[in-house]
Amino acid sequence: MAQQRPSARPGLRQALSALAYPDYRAFSISFLLTSLGAQLVQVAVLWQVYLITGSALLIGLTGLARAVPHIALSLVGGVIADRVNRVRLIQAGQLANGLLMLALAALTLLGRVEVWHLYLVTALNAAFTALTQPARTALIPRLVPADRLLNAIGLNATIGQVAQIVGPALGGIAIAAVDLGPVYVVNGLLYLASMMAILGVRTPSTPPAVAESPWRSFLDGLKFVRSRSVIVSLLALDVGATALGSYRGLLPIFAATLGVGATGFGLLSAAPGVGALAGAAFILSLGDFRYKGVYTLCGVLAYCGAAIMLALSPWFWLSLVAAALLGATNSIQMIPRNTVILTISPDAMRGRVEAFRSMLAGGAPPLGYTLAGALADVFGPAMALVSGSLACVLFVGGIAAASRELRDPDLGAVPARESETGDSAATAGAAPGSR
């Protein structure tokens, strides 16, 4: 019997409507576990580099170690995602990251870890993530009807923000309580558990066979992105915020300056997740709203203001508020942006389009770490963040002036025929044995 599409109702049920689909539930559990693992490793590595070196520049170089694989391999992951079983590809990446974290745990527990080990692990973790992230995002539209896509993306963002709350807070407390080695053990186990959870996805996840070469597939994806100028504008907004307004690599220094140690660092790292939950709840409460491009523009500008507030804050409690606002404003711009990109991209092209987004989303923030770390080494962390945020404001203003499409009230609207097609796909995906 075909599964009925859940009716949209106001309140909590509407906000969680994508979870009514079994495939998306399995996907979301796996994504939560993976996101917790990703947050733990970032917090632990940043703190460990700081303990070993005490250098803002060397902390920032962890961003370079993460950025290079993302930039180099995300496009490859996009081509692969449009050719192979996306669920199996995701599982392979989760297994590789799990084993990698357990290896780092062994080095740390044996007291043999060196800074170059941390850079290498960061680079490999980023490489495995870059190869699988396009498949993960490209899979979402197959798990829910098209008119639930914004809700699914919003829930995905919410899950990521829950991980940003729990992961850093748990990491900071665990580092202070049991040291880094056990944290890496838990990290590895989370990746392995996420590999098992995604087994529940039963939607057919292998794209139709293609005769063209991988290189031709890559060029076709590049041509599609270039032909949609609004996608380029949306991606550029994300780069501006994450590269110029990068703050995460400076948090260990802010925590040390405020005298709050590893626990305070963990709380500062978690605060953006708290704010992001509030931002995501606000966006989800609006339903499939209009003016998605305008929300994205305003969200990035507000993000820059919150970053300046964090840089100039003399008190820990005010820094926590600023960090929470960074998360809230990031959700407000990220959810509509990603919804537009996925909505206007055909399914056969989504892996490659997501690869471009993933390349920038995964590469720009770590490059921002490096830029912020280098500036902080010369001018101090506060001035580094203030100057980067002001540059971001100017950058966003230029994009807003140049791209009229971003002000289109119907940007990213779901056509009725796509809603019906997506509904059929989700219903088919709910049927037992439909792999």
Question: What does this protein structure show overall?
Answer:
The chain has 435 residues and is mostly helical. It has one domain: Growth Hormone, Chain: A. Helix content is 78%, strand content 0%. It is built from 16 helices and no strands. Helix 8 packs across helix 14. The longest helix is centred in the C-terminal third of the chain and has 33 residues. The protein is globular. The two termini are 17 Å apart.
CATH class: Mainly Alpha
Count every helix, treating DSSP H or I runs of 4 or more residues as helices.
16
CATH architecture: Up-down Bundle
Largest sheet: none
Head-to-tail CA distance between termini:
17 Å
- Number of folding domains? 1
Walk me through the topology.
Layout: H1 12-15, H2 22-53, H3 56-81, H4 86-109, H5 115-139, H6 149-178, H7 180-197, H8 214-227, H9 229-244, H10 251-258, H11 261-285, H12 292-312, H13 316-343, H14 347-379, H15 381-402, H16 416-430
